[in-house]
Hints:
Elements: E1 3-11, E2 21-27, E3 30-35, E4 46-47, E5 53-55, E6 58-63, H1 76-85, E7 88-93, H2 104-114, E8 120-125, H3 139-145, E9 149-150, H4 160-171, H5 184-187
Amino acid sequence: xxxxxxxxxxxxxxxxxxxxxxxxxxxxxxxxxxxxxxxxxxxxxxxxxxxxxxxxxxxxxxxxxxxxxxxxxxxxxxxxxxxxxxxxxxxxxxxxxxxxxxxxxxxxxxxxxxxxxxxxxxxxxxxxxxxxxxxxxxxxxxxxxxxxxxxxxxxxxxxxxxxxxxxxxxxxxxxxxxxxxxxxxxxxx
Length: 189
């Protein structure tokens, strides 16, 4: 993509251009030049919008895709396309599918369906088998396959010993446990 972006406010705290209006010249999809004004002698297409802001890609830490099982809700490809069009360059995908993402094969499926997409996918595997809070899932195998964390999506683990076991077990391979803190015995109605 060869384009000239005119008068965009750059949002990047690590840049000397942070919160300044600048023109950006893109050649083959990469930023070639940033300046207060850039002429356009080769008549590239220009993007010039009121209140235009540019930032690095965004990361969404909790994405729910329907596939597998709920493709009518959203497929992996459509969800990632929507994420890209919304400015996201990476997403962490929850295991709230049918079947629940609770095995190495499920992680591999998700990553293979997302392969070649401009949005990076970081799978979150279920902490327990089928997300039912009874038996631990294949945590180590899912981590080896690419899972970044383990979480029974929006379901509290009612057995504190199971949570303790998951925390101790994942410590051996630097795994991350996410929990939905809602002890029903304490919360009551």
